[in-house]
Design goal:
It is built from 20 helices and no strands. By secondary structure, the chain is mainly alpha-helical.
Amino acid sequence: MRLRPVTRTTLWRHADFRRLWAADALSQLGTQVTVLALPLLAIKVLDANAFEVGLLTTFEFLGFLLVGLPAGAWVDRMRRRYVLLVADLVRAALFGSIPLAWWLDALTLPQVYAVTLLAGICTVFFDVAYQSYLPHLVGRDFLVEGNAKLQGTQSVAQVAGPPVAGVLVQAVTAPYAILVDAVSFLWSAIWIGAIRSREPRPERVPDRHLLREIREGLSFVLGHRLLRAIAACTSTSNLFFNIGMTAFVVLLADQAELDLSPGTIGLLFSAPAIGGLLGAVLARRIAGWIGQGPAIWVPVAMQGPLSVALPLVERGWRLALVGVCLAGVGVMIVVYNVTQVSFRQLLTPERLLGRMNATMRFLVWGTIPVGGFLGGVLGSTIGLRQTLWVSVVGGALTFLPVFLSPLRWMRELPTEPAGADGEQAAASR
């Protein structure tokens, strides 16, 4: 079945986009509940220390290192809607096992690690297929608008998710709060299954070879100067951000430190998403004001000064100041993401979309488990606040790869796939 054309004024009237949006909306809320409920489960229920909380982040994102590259080649061989369905159903079962084990008085930290690892592997496939599926659904001319709407929805979920998680953890305990995430994945699967538009079956190449296909995706990303700069910027930013966040959540929740309630922590963690809502609304306007290239590097450069308040957090007015700074960081992250993700999707030939997204995820999310591990190690050795300073100083330098690239002055970025030239360059490397 051919995808129906979308007009500028009717993207919300596009039935299949609405179904994709409905699937994403509640699923994002459930995911945000788990983002807070899992570390609180580890700290308050299973008595995890800073190093063990860091391992939780490591296992959650380890899948991007383990299967990130082959996932792109596999996704390019399959109908992406089917990949989304299977990933949702498996994640629903995995997260549903946590409250079940708790009810049976059998929940352990190794089980939590196993669930986060396997769910993370499913997320690898889901995210690669999701970013590659959107161009099919709405057309390349409306990618920025589609990404902005989905990013805005994610920001709403990030606003609501942490406070909801805090209330649920206090009311029904962390294991049962995670049940919300399991249900949200079932909801997502139902709506994705209702999408009527069908992709054509990918053409089977007689001499296809997994390693060659992976190498082609790597060559396309690393061989393109702008994509290479974006990958370097995002990967180092994720590394230092997660070094800091591992220490930050322990600092807030640990009885020997600030010992804040789950509800208060949830409200604080919703601050970046409040800023993200504003960022989703302003992303296209900011790119129009300062240019698309500066709309990539300027937001990253501004995150460094805004993060200085984190190591200084205390109860009282400093806690409120940290919330304001985190909201500012949220604005910057969303403006950056909407601009650079849309650019990547527009630049990449159709047949390489899955491999491009997988390669980028491997490069930029593969540093997250490393950051979580280092944050746990540093938090347990040099101290939590000192670890946050490492995160702030390192994060302040992450804008340099894009600043020192041609993106610095480019008012308009390429809006067409690389085409034959890009494919030939990728194949020749």
